[in-house]
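Task 17 of the worksheet. Students: predict the tertiary structure of the chain below and write it out as structure tokens. Keep your answer in the requested format; marks are given for formatting as well as content.
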Amino acid sequence: MDLAAENVLLRRVLDLLPEAISVRDAATGDAMFENDAARTLAAGAGDASEFLTTQRDCFPLTDGTSCEMVVKAVVSGRSPVVRAVLHAMQYAAFLAKPSGTLEYCNDENLRVLGKTREQMLREGWRDTVHPDDRAVRKALWEEAAVTGVLRPSESRQKVADGTYRYRSISAGPIRDSDGRCLRMVGILVDIHESKLLQQRLEEERAMLAAVLENLPVGACVAKPGGELTVINKKLVDIWGGVQNQCKSTAEYGEWRAYHPDGRRYAGSDWPLARSLGGEVVVEEETIIERCDGRRGIATLSSHPVYNSTGEVIAGVVTVTDVTELRRMQEAEGRRIAAEKVAEATRSLVSNCSHELRTVRRARDAAAECDVLHVKSQGLGQQLPSITILLCRVSHLRRCSAARGGYSGHDGAAGRHGARRGAAGLRSDHPRVGQAAADRHF
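Model answer:
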């Protein structure tokens, strides 16, 4: 085959290639050879955005001159390799201009959306985007037209069954040798289920935060390690402020609190710190010192939070201010003690009024009053004197009965007194009776 025949064959082969190939004089820039794809592009019948990469190469010719060969590779649907790759993808793939004008989408994208390729090309894809998300998507593509970078985003898109599903879009630029963005190639991924799950988790988190904030007791949540993540308003009210937004359990000691024996709580002593280690604490009574220096009494309960594998992922503690409750309980105890003293006193007087034959019951009542005196001051201090006085009254009544001037409540006391007087019992003498009373009390 002569040289001319070889040139014709070579030109024919080059014309069949989808790439645009042109050879120009390196000095003048005049075209020396162009295949069909390059001529079509030069005539304006083609779209320059179809050519994604440009390769330039200069090499010398036999006559001493040099030429530049420019090869522009096409990755449109006419390229069988690119088409096979895009169609084989399990994700919805697309090829678009930086402005968002769609030039190609693979079969998976058409299947999900229930559209034909003709319906999707150019601007047709925008109709599938949810009306509330179109403005955001448009702004992102306008930004990409300037920067050549499409930021990852999420939007709702109408699919084949007529419902809207969340899909994420990510794309990368394809640039020429000068760094200009020619096209954006990207994929869309269905994230509907994960998006709904995320929304449910956010709703549950918001509800949990609302519950914690409105609890009638103080509440606090900590991560493993001790960092406080949630402190509700009631806890701030109990302490009169936040003494430290702790980052570790060692810093818990800066919240001032004391054991019943007066020892100050160290960081590891706090129920929350112990629950992060797996311990459950129920109503541990603590003396707390508020931000203004006042002290109070609080009960602390804490519990660890586990994940599905049994690992502690958090700890929660509740704080109940029982200062007023303890004061009320102490006041109620004093009131009950005072009532018992008053009842014992009334019983003593009643015994002395109705049964003056003996001072035994009065003496027992007086002893009870002496015991209750520990809890009630005032009246209890006077009981011994009252008892002595009543003993004297009893003695006078017995003396009167002995002389026959008193018949008793039912007459028996007078007769009994008379017999005792006749028997000459010296214990009825005022001095003897007083001495006996003094020895007893």
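Marker's comment: The longest helix spans residues 323-354. The first strand starts at residue 20 and ends at 25.
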